[in-house]
């Protein structure tokens, strides 16, 4: 039996396993339902985004927007789409549902032992299955993006070169987000003996990492390290505080809030959802992004009058992209090691 690791990875055998996995997904009812769910989530977001784009366009034409003088672009449409996939979790659900039984399901049916009895190594199996799943995600995402462009064209919305470049980056970021959650499910599938256990573990890790830890972690740590939030102390006799005393308490509170915000940012690195939202917002919610830059830069008022290019935004968020890439690398690394040591007796 070719069950060990190979000295030289055979790309042909990896592609054969990937092709088998991809075709198996295409003809399965589960993949059709997941594609339908993804299309509904993206389609609803696209309809909301188109309405938001036209409202922003009317506001810009009327001249009532006194802060931002940037003409709205079709990239606004993808704001609701990325929120549906990331913040509301539909993208995570689709990716996890695609990968939670990738290994555990075959262990339960006994087909994994049969597969490894053929001239194929374990590393080729795990790499082929992961590649087949990723190709399936690319196929599904491409279909829904074709639907989005069709809706945009039907609405008379044609993106320019800059907007088209941002849309391509958004496509890539969504793919990374889906792959990260798929890798999480693949890891759980390699660790657990049953598909039901893998699904429960995947959803539990997703909840803890993406929602519980970024919310409860900073609150608990700030309470233990920073203590209670400073409040203005009023004099017992009811007289007013001096300006210097009032400023002192205000500075204390600002420092406390800044330290708490830094803790929030640190814990957000562990959240796939928050990293993804932080990456897509500069592209889809450009006015909010520029406003934060203006607040941080103080006198950079020119930022409010110019649409940033793709390269300018990428230069600002490349660290978050690296963080998003690390999730699938870590999850797949654990799945790979576990699968290589799997006892199939």
TrEMBL record:
The chain crosses the membrane at residues 31-50, 85-103, 131-158, 164-186, 198-216, 317-339. It holds the Pfam family ABC2_membrane_2. One of its GO terms (molecular function) is ABC-type transporter activity. Keywords: Membrane, Transmembrane, Transmembrane helix. GO terms for cellular component: plasma membrane. PANTHER family: ABC TRANSPORTER PERMEASE (PTHR43471), ABC-2 TYPE TRANSPORT SYSTEM PERMEASE PROTEIN (PTHR43471:SF14). This is ABC transporter permease. It comes from Methanochimaera problematica. The lineage of its organism: Archaea, Methanobacteriati, Methanobacteriota, Stenosarchaea group, Methanomicrobia.
